[in-house]
Amino acid sequence: VQLVESGGGLVQPGGSLRLSCAASGFTSSRYVMSWYRQAPGKERELVADLTRAGGSANYADSVKGRFTISRDNAKNTVYLQMNSLKPEDTAVYFCNAQIGLIGFWGQGTQVTVSS
Fold it and tell me: Using 50, 70 and 90 to split pLDDT, how confident is the model at 8?
């Protein structure tokens, strides 16, 4: 099982980024896939998750209406579209796959929102 995030970077407030999480070694559509983030000095927090099959999405209150989680089953990839970014969105973003009782993590991608 491997998860590789990409798409992070430096963006101005109000800007957009799309993060990608490329999965390998398993079929991501069969499992709950999530995005978490961790800011300096803070605990890792759930940003959004996407259930298997039907693809129902859930979001943290802080990102509702601004972020969208989605998946491309053909590419075995999960995305996080982030719009109207704020400085408080600055963090390392991690992809997570919950397979049974085990949570698998990617290496993370840095998102910095600053003018």
Answer: very high
